[in-house]
What does this fold into?
Amino acid sequence: MVKLGKQARSVSIVGVGCTPFKNFEDHPQTKGMSEGDAFGYAALEAIADAGLEPRDIQYFYHGAANPFMIGDSLTPNMQVADWFGVRGIGSVHHSEACCTGYVALQEAVQAVACGTYDVVLSGAVDLAASLPVVDAPGCFRRDFPLSEMLPSIPKVYDRAYGRPFDSAFGISFDNWINKYRWDYDLTAEQIDDALNGVSKSLRRDAVLNPLAFSTKDFDQLAAENNLPDADAYLKGFGNPKVTQYLRVTGFEIKCDGAAAIVVMPTDMAIARGLDHKVIDVLGTGAAAYEGATPDNEYNGTRDGVEQVYELTGVSPDELDLLFVNDFFLAGDIVAAEEVGYIPRGEAWQYAIDGRMGFDGDRPINTHGGRCNFGHAHGASGVADIVEAVRQMRGEAGATQMPKVPQTTFLRGFGGGQNIRCQILRTHD
Amino acid sequence: MLLEDMEPIAKRFYDGVAEGKLLGRRCTECGAIEFPPHLGCNACGYHQTEWVELSGHGTLESFVVPGIQNDKPYLKAVAPYGYGKVRLDEGAEYSFVVFCGKKKVVKGLQERLYKGHESIGVHFRPIKRVVPQKEGSDVMVEWWQPCFELDEVAE
It folds into this structure.
């Protein structure tokens, strides 16, 4: 029996599916799409990709960041099961805000690793660009202005202290990148150049990905605004800093989307003789620090990184590809160093030099990440896993890395604040 | 904390803030200060803690300047401020709103903290909050929010 790490049996990803990450209300093909439609399309694509039928799924996980507000639902797993032909099987809903998608992988792997189930689907959906019309069917959506979204964000923080102290939200965006700046004696201008460098690389990746929200790169946007180049656009009046360091382009693009994966024991995956590579899940490092706990993103990442390297025996020099939940963009720089993917003190320069794009030597978020691919909150972590698997199979289309990656690290983060650090490896 | 000693910890804490007191809990095994107060000890994982009144004084360990995304009008109305990690004199650390007295102090604080490695003292500075019991209600709930302020503002 194949056995990797400490799990009772090894588990592999055998199927992936992902809807476009768009504002569904903007496109005739997606306008009127309900949560059930979206989850169902992603799930059926993942099941077909695994060479299975819905009847082969034994259990499924449903993730969503904020189903009560965004989905007008308290029991969303019950409400999507019939959409993809699995009525009656066991399922559960989970919600860890923006870390949901990585928890989705961990939970599914554990359900198979322990031997309870053999074939498990794990998916997530958030129609985060719009809001439901309450008391109307799920195909009716309305706009979701920032004025309605912002009051919901503090609800990820502890009601006893984290939220009333009112420091968690304010300190979260810039805390780690500010420390990084001063640790390496950088200027605010250098950090700005580094973040804009990340934006340029990741936007280029997203524009080449048909599933991504962004369809125009910054050179195109500059030309449309009569500006000389991408840098002029990124530093211009239309892209102001909205925190001490982050510009508008350094924040997530809220969108609609769903994604799903199918996992099974590695032995079963090999025996089935799939027409694509089998991707093994080597392990997960997990941490959770309440949002007002000082340095929570740093501490959680440090803990998760340490755990997953110890669990898997993988070392940073074996990594070919990194995914970082970058709903605020600075995470790509600081987490890349904490993971050991880029030497300490150098990620800012790598960003400026354009080395983080799909064809660079240290690619990060090859689909563009939250600020360019789009952020369908709970679903985005699963979309990261889908993109990682496609890269590792050599099926990533226009943004396929020149050297097909063998080992991928995912740094999940979110939900005030959960951390999951996961390593995937192509089965040899 | 066991059931026979049950009391509402958060309520007692906020009652203390309203009286100008900053309360924490001390672990009865390792002696670490649990702040803000919870039932168990997060330093060593022991189950028992006891109330302790803290000095309300600490040192600023990090500082972030708000932009339009993370600025709060109700805080700005009190005084120029930022967000920071405070290490209390008793050892615990937490994130707080930190009032700075003047805007130019906010702007220069990171340089002093990170480059000058200056030890910047801060003290407890609660602010009163009044919120409707529910949207549109005339019934108001009054409570006090624990914030900090640079010592130099009071000097």
